[in-house]
Structure formats: structure tokens, C-alpha cells
Write a sequence for this structure.
């Protein structure tokens, strides 16, 4: 799904998650090594605690944003409908997470993910990605995670 026109992409076509577990509202930028996503924190978000997005919600947001970097390579270039979606991905390790602030209901966070390494076995892809999540211009989360991704 390497495409330059991302304005027509419905992210739910490319992630196995559905509300209330879908933690990405839209893709702002994507290329072969990185992605930038946004997530609007609504009142019905499953990861709220006392009106704030919890630490687990922030980690899940980062993981979903990061999975798009490698996941896109399993789709055809012009598949903006996600018809080739037969992927399963797992967080295999959380190497580092630093959380500086919890965003509140009604706020929008921006998460940027960058590919650090990738190894394809033919049946499975193992990769490491780093993410940064921002509220306005402030860094609120920094993480490094490993993933296993395979087709089913």
C-alpha cells in the first residue's frame, strides 16, 4: 500500500482493530520507513482513566501507528480499500517506554514511528521501531518496540 495520496485511506481497512480498540484516527504521512498518525481521544475510548488516556492506551496507540510502517509492504500499491488485509501483528518486546504526560479527552495526539530494523524470514517479519507521541508540540511519549508480523 505504498501510496502518496493518503487522504482517501480508511485506516480501519488496514488494522485488525475496531472500536473501541482502534487507537488511530487517521494517517497523516507514510513512506517505506516511517509513518505519522493522529488519534482524537473521545469520551468512549476504552483506555480512559479519570478523563485521561492511560499509559496502556498510549502504548497501544504507538504500536498501531508503528505497525503501519512494515504492514504497508504486505499490500499492493493502489490497495486503498485494504482488500489484501490478511495480517496479524504482535508486540514481541517493549524495549523502552517513557511517558511524560497523559492527554485528556477531547485532545488529539500525533504519533510518529520510524523503522529501525527489519528481518524477513519468508513466513514472518521481525522488526524494531521507535515512536514519539506529541500533544501540540510537546513530546509526551517515547518508545522502542519489536514486532512480529505475518500473513494468515
Amino acid at each position: 500500500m505504498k501510496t502518496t495520496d493518503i487522504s482517501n485511506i480508511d485506516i480501519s481497512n488496514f488494522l485488525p482493530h475496531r472500536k473501541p480498540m482502534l487507537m488511530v484516527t487517521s494517517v497523516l504521512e507514510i513512506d517505506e520507513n516511517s509513518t505519522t498518525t493522529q488519534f482524537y481521544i473521545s469520551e468512549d475510548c476504552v483506555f480512559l482513566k479519570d478523563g485521561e488516556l492511560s499509559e496502556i492506551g498510549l502504548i497501544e496507540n504507538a504500536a498501531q501507528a508503528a505497525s503501519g510502517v512494515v504492514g504497508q509492504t504486505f499490500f499492493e500499491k493502489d490497495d486503498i480499500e485494504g482488500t489484501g488485509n490478511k495480517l496479524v501483528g504482535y508486540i514481541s518486546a517493549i524495549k523502552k517506554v517513557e511517558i511524560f504526560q497523559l492527554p485528556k479527552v477531547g485532545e488529539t495526539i500525533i504519533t510518529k514511528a520510524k523503522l529501525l530494523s527489519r528481518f524477513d524470514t519468508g513466513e514472518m517479519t521481525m522488526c524494531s521501531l521507535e515512536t514519539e507521541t506529541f500533544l501540540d508540540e510537546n513530546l509526551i511519549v517515547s518508545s522502542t518496540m519489536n514486532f512480529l508480523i505475518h500473513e494468515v
Q: What stands out?
A: The mean pLDDT is 85. The helical segments are 55-71. The first helix runs from residue 55 to 71.
